Amino acid sequence: MRALLIIDYTNDFVATDGALTTGSAGQALEHPIIDLANSFLDHGDAVILPTDLHQANDPYHPETALYPPHNLAKTRGRELYGRLADWYATHQNDSHVHFMDKNRYSAFANTGLDSYLRQRQITDLHLAGVCTDICVLHTAVDAYDLDYDLTVHRTAVASFDPTGHAWALNHFEHAMGATIVD
């Protein structure tokens, strides 16, 4: 079984006015991500949306010192971006669709994602979303360490750092044996 993870595709990471926006690079992912999500559902596969959740001025969270406030609870910035918000509203009651909060870079940290996947006998993970060299990367490393097969969709990941994006794609392929597809 396989699952598509659409990581952090929110207004704060994608919209032009987002707090940590990937800008046009992230916005260009909108159609490929929707196409992938529809394809996965059409084949009876899971679509999981691990999404950053933070509290304002949290003195205990390491990202508070690293980045401006982003993906804050109950804000527009945390809402899914563009057509993905509409897609999710349409499919949120589908048993193959799962929205999950995360509070670290990796979708596996503090979330129960590994148990969710193993209960459903999902062994093949496809990654999409942002940022290629941060949350997608950390999720991929944890997935690799947990022995999942990885596919990264080149046309469905982006970063605000083109150098980091290129490095991460190379790392996925050459250090983790991930399949990179367009």
- Write down the overall mean pLDDT: 96
Biggest sheet architecture: 6 strands, parallel
- Give the low-pLDDT segments: none
Q: How is the quaternary structure best described? A: single chain
Structural class: alpha/beta
Q: What amount of the residues lies in strands?
A: 15-25%
**What overall geometry do the principal axes of the alpha carbons give?**
globular
Instruction: Please tally the helical runs, counting DSSP H or I stretches of 4 or more residues.
Output: 8
> What is the spatial order of strands in the main beta sheet?
3-2-1-4-5-6
**H/E topology pattern:** EHHHEHHEHEHEHE
Number of strands: 6
Helical residue percent band: 25-40%
What gap, in angstroms, lies between the N and C termini? 21 Å
Radius of gyration: 15 Å
Give a structural overview:
- The chain is of the alpha/beta class and 182 residues long.
- Helices cover 39% and strands 21% of the residues.
- It has helices at 11-14, 24-27, 30-42, 63-66, 82-91, 113-119, 132-145, 162-176, and strands spanning 2-7, 46-52, 97-102, 124-130, 149-158, 179-181.
- The protein has a 6-stranded parallel beta sheet with strand order 3-2-1-4-5-6, sandwiched between helices.
- It is globular and about 40 Å long.
- The protein starts with a strand and ends with a strand.
